[in-house]
Amino acid sequence: MDWNDTPEQARFRAEVRELIETRLPERYRLGGAGERAWEFDRKSPDPAARKAAMDWHAALAERGWVAPHWPKEYGGAGMSAMEQFVLNQEMARAGAPGVGGSGLSMLGPTIILHGTEDQRHKYLPPILAGEVTWAQGYSEPGAGSDLASLQTRATRDGDDFILNGQKIWTSAAHSSDAIFALVRTDPEAPKHRGISFILIDDIKAPGISVRPLIDMGGRHYFNEVFFEDVRVPAANLVGEMNRGWYVAMTLLDFERSNIGGAVGARRTLDRLIDVIQGDPALRARIASSPVRHEIAQRYVETEVMYQFSLRIISMQNRGQLPNDEASMAKLYNSELSQRLAQTCMQVLGLQANLMEGNEESSFARLYIGMVPATIRGGTSEVQRNVIATRGLGLPRA
Ligand SMILES: Cc1cc2nc3c(=O)[nH]c(=O)nc-3n(C[C@H](O)[C@H](O)[C@H](O)COP(=O)(O)OP(=O)(O)OC[C@H]3O[C@@H](n4cnc5c(N)ncnc54)[C@H](O)[C@@H]3O)c2cc1C
Question: What is the pTM of this model?
């Protein structure tokens, strides 16, 4: 099999590079954008940050590249999975932030699959326009890996539901406009059958409070979200009442398929090599150190990760939604990202412990930032359970 670009892919790659060269705001060039930079910048008190987020969104929108994976009829670019990969690759190489947040990557495709036509018309355009971003309200204090144990209640009251309960680890809820949530609509049913998927249009609606949680890197990244008698129209259910589990799992497959994953690891490795090549003392040290083998091993692993991405791409090109394959890619990529961050620390020694620079340019921040990689989006243990049961047909616990 030939992994090189076809002439069309090469042309498309050149187009993407040109857009990045001419339109990527300066703010994202200095060592690259941090995680969710676009979402946070969009709501930043700093006008320069807000402008950078809007300019970059406008640049992508002019080309119709805001939603590469959405079908054209819903305003997406309708790109093949391979074109999406090329776009992701070039964006990640340049450190350019993705736009649209979870609304674009996960919720939009889920509404396209499971939503009503009215919901598609109401919710998709503001996501595309960068006007509304969504937080993901799945996890609760007593429901993470065992998500189906969730307790947030939605009780029917006329044409509405009344929500009560708590979500936790809600990424970017403080900068989001809206939140989608899994709620229990039938407490008597077996736990997977009494859950519904609901859209809460305004995260500032009466009864909702968002409280910050500060992570080990000192960042305000995720939050707790409390619901106290929050009124939500029944029309906001996605899919059937009490069948939300299936909608939720589709969304998780979109989350785990993330075909850009391989590119991030390669970018980190390239950055490490650049630092070594630019530092004669470090080069001399590496020449006589077994750490060279460790770097070579990480290179082999980034190539393996690349193959995982191509497998997912080829499934998506055939119209299939990767499931245990997405879990394998997520598992491998998240564990690789931690090994790679560890290798960077090993190679650079104390220099790497400095917290200088931003999230992208500091290896110390990278190392800390990768700790949650094997927890978010389902832990490594959970991914291995999925692979064992759905991939290999082994019995469930
Ligand atoms: C950076 C980050 C961002 C996040 N963003 C969001 C978000 O936006 N929205 C959201 O809803 N959630 C979010 N989460 C939450 C995330 O989905 C959960 O943390 C994750 O699913 C694990 O749940 P838990 O933390 O409750 O751990 P637990 O489920 O309590 O697990 C604790 C440990 O037990 C292990 N374990 C549990 N069950 C099994 C089993 N059956 N077999 C083997 N081992 C098991 C786990 O692997 C883990 O090591 C985020 C988490 C992180 C770290």
Answer: 0.94
